[in-house]
Specification:
By secondary structure, this protein is mostly helical.
């Protein structure tokens, strides 16, 4: 085997400051009373050390020369302490020594052009006068101060030139530069499997520059956004707004402020279509109830001392909603079902104008609010419900006989008879054939919605509670062969209507003044008829015809599924509409007793 060559080690002179490291230079400066807390290069530290060493030597020489030229060396200075060996009269100032000191200081100042701002501790061991010592120290401090200022100016000049060079040679950190750097050619194809952010790969601007820009490794699917988090992705417009202090627009529904700001005033042409879709999502009655609920909530907030901007949504929280429930139950005497409807109105309002559901937190309902509502329902369990009595077949027959006397005039009496028989045999709700506030041909019953044949009339309902998507429901009305017949009543009214009013209005049921049949008008006249018959009119309303039809069907012993079909019920809730009389219960108990054949 070949012999290994002996490694020769070069001798390094540790006493030479040119061979010292940065830490050694800082320690040497610290011994001179100069503490360095900033990052300086090795060459700058070396120059600072050599300059201060030369300054210290010059100061000692100046002081020593001044002491030798003094005529009365009665004052000795050792370790910055003076010992007085004569009287005060013997302490004089020599003009020659002052001139020598001044010439020496000026010479030293001209030789040292740039120095830092050190903290100098003089340690003079040669004897001299106190006045000379004080003058020398003042001159040295002034000299070092001037040198320090010159050094700072040169350092700032170098920093500015370095910054200018970096700005000219280095591209700014933006998305374009980052992506350009990320698609730099790689040495091997195996780098495709490296992490997206390579912390060891940098672009070096200059040879001695420590300012480096990261290079991002490219995967097969590109560069993930998380790997370029230090990239400036702010657009120039937003950057200008930040500089000038202009308001920056917010983003996203989940980034909403506490003020719950409403939508922007700038509207898209499609917003009109969206508004109409919001309108079609609810019925007129539900819209009215929801509007009442949000108005009551706003009134409650004002009473509670809360205010908000008119362009913002009202404040909402689980605590405020619980207080609102307590306010409705305690001060407004509202029942549990009505309060729930008002809460649904608040939810709809915030969904429409804020894009979020205030009754849900993290995908789950508000548990405290839910518990409060359960407690309210249990507390109001003993509350007497509003009693709605049915208008059965026997009551309807008496009402029709009374209408035959033209109690409300010929036209209104015939119209009311046709409306009552249609509501009874069609199991209609009051809102399905009357108008709430204003006639709407897209929802209310029109003349074109009736198809008349020889023995049957088909009534089409464009809008119904059980038809939320408005596909339309057709209800057949057949001749009964009795005195109370919906077909005969409708034909009689339609003939009179066409003869009296030649101009055919859209609404089918109209009053004598050619106005569409209003809900209040219809219910008030029905109660007047019931009052004439000696019945308690307060227990009846527009829904009594539907309830009476279900009750009469049960008395006629129609099958349950047939009752459900006639009333267009989607569940067995129709059983709540059936009112069982005491006579039916009496006969049922008799039938149970007759089963005993012993």
């Amino acid at each position: 085997m070949a012999s290994r060559r002996a490694r020769t080690r070069s001798h390094i002179d540790n006493s030479n400051p040119a061979n010292w490291t940065s830490s050694q230079l800082k320690d040497a400066l610290k011994e001179l009373g100069i503490n360095i807390s900033i990052q300086l290069s090795n060459s700058a530290l070396r120059k600072l050390y050599l300059d201060n060493v030369d300054n210290r030597r010059n100061v000692q020489n100046v002081v020593q020369n001044s002491a030798n030229s003094s005529d009365n060396p009665t004052i000795f200075v050792a370790n910055n302490r003076s010992v007085n060996n004569s009287t005060e009269e013997n302490i004089t100032t020599n003009d020659d020594s002052n001139r020598v000191l001044e010439d020496s200081v000026i010479s030293t100042n001209s030789n040292s052009a740039s120095n830092s701002s050190p903290r100098i501790n003089l340690d003079i061991n040669t004897p001299t006068s106190a006045h000379v010592q004080e003058t020398a120290s003042a001159q040295v401090n002034n000299m070092l101060l001037i040198n320090t200022i010159e050094l700072c100016q040169q350092t700032l000049k170098q920093v500015n030139s370095r910054q200018s060079m970096l700005q000219e040679t280095m591209p700014s950190f933006n998305l374009q530069s980052a992506m350009a750097a990320s698609f730099m050619p790689h040495s091997t194809s195996t780098q495709m499997t490296e992490p997206a952010l390579s912390t060891n790969c940098f672009i070096q601007i200059g040879q001695n520059d420590s300012y480096r820009m990261p290079v991002y490794s490219v995967k097969s699917f590109g560069v993930p956004a998380s790997s370029i988090s230090d990239t400036d992705m702010i657009s120039p417009e937003i950057r200008q707004n930040i500089i000038t202090g202009t308001q920056i627009p917010g983003i996203g529904p989940r980034s909403r402020d506490e003020s719950n700001t409403l939508s922007a005033t700038v509207r898209n042409p499609l917003d009109c279509t969206i508004d109409s879709l919001w309108k079609y999502s609810l019925s007129n009655n539900t819209t009215s109830v929801y509007r009442t609920g949000i108005e009551l909530y706003n009134r409650f907030l004002l009473l509670d001392g809360l205010t908000w901007n008119k362009d913002s949504l009202p404040p909402v929280s689980e605590t405020l909603l619980m207080r609102f429930v307590a306010y409705c139950a305690e001060h407004k005497q509202l029942c549990h079902s009505t309060i729930k409807l008002y809460l649904c109105g608040i939810r709809f309002h915030f969904l429409k104008y804020g894009g979020f559901n205030p009754l849900i937190s993290f995908g789950k309902p508000l548990e405290c609010l839910k518990t409060i509502l359960i407690g309210l329902k249990k507390k109001q369990g003993s509350t007497v419900k509003r009693k709605r009595l049915p208008i059965t077949m026997s009551i309807l027959s008496k009402m029709c006989k009374l209408l035959h006397t033209c109690i409300f005039g010929n036209f209104n009496s015939i119209m009311l008879e046709a409306a009552c028989t249609t509501a009874f045999f069609g199991f209609l709700r009051c809102g399905e054939f009357t108008v709430m506030n204003q006639f709407d041909p897209e929802c209310n019953l029109c003349c074109s919605d009736l198809q008349i044949t020889a023995d049957c009339i088909f009534v089409t309902l464009k809008k119904s509670k059980t038809d939320p998507f408005r596909q339309g429901i057709t209800i057949p009305l057949y001749k009964t062969g009795c005195s109370i017949c919906p077909v005969l009543s409708i034909l009689k009214y339609n003939q009179l209507r066409q003869s009296v009013y030649s101009s055919n209005t859209e609404a089918f049921f109209i009053s004598e003044d050619m106005k569409p049949l209003n809900r209040k008008f219809f219910i008030s006249h029905v109660k007047m008829l019931l009052d004439k018959l000696g019945l308690s009119c307060d227990s009846y309303n527009g829904h009594s015809f539907r309830i009476g039809a279900a009750t009469s069907a049960q008395e006629a012993r129609l099958e349950d599924h047939l009752i459900q079909t006639l009333g267009r019920w989607l569940s067995n809730c129709y059983t709540r509409y059936i009112h069982t009389s005491l006579n039916v219960l009496k006969n049922a108990q008799k039938q149970l007793a007759e089963t005993d054949r012993s």
